[in-house]
Amino acid sequence: MKIEHYAHTEPKLDLFDYFSGKTYAWGQFQDRSGEVKRRFKVDISGTIDGNVLTLDEQFVYDDGETEQRIWRIERLGDNRYQGTAGDVIGTAFGESAGAVFNWSYT
Q1: Of these four, 12, 40, 61, 91, which has the most CB atoms within 10 Å of its CB?
Q2: How many CA atoms lie within 13 A of 23 on its CB side?
């Protein structure tokens, strides 16, 4: 994906504005054949302190398991970001363009 291809899409995403306060998400894990293996919902609380966005993510899986992930995402400028979370290896890197955000981590 070349993120610059989306620079003129609307509405323009401001990551900090979008995640400030409460956000809710739903998702699923699929195997390579596309079979759904697990579903989840996430309650996200976002707080901002200067150029750092903290996301407290509370996962609930369809089998009843729960999990928490806390992201600390720093705005680097020029629509670039970096972040860390306790269960993520190393540093995540992200970039936004227009309405699109690309976030990569291990």
Answers
A1: 40
A2: 17
State the residue for tokens 């195997």.
31
Sign for the CA dihedral angle at 92, 104, 14, 6 comes to positive
- Please, which pLDDT band fits residue 1 given cuts at 50, 70 and 90? confident
Per-residue pLDDT tens over the stretch 6-61: 999 999 999 999 999 999 999 999 999 999 999 999 999 999 999 999 999 999 99
What does the alpha-carbon distance between residue 57 and residue 46 come to, in Å, rounded to a whole number? 9
CATH number 3.40.50 given to 3-104: no
What gap in Å lies between CA 4 and CA 12, rounded to an integer?
13
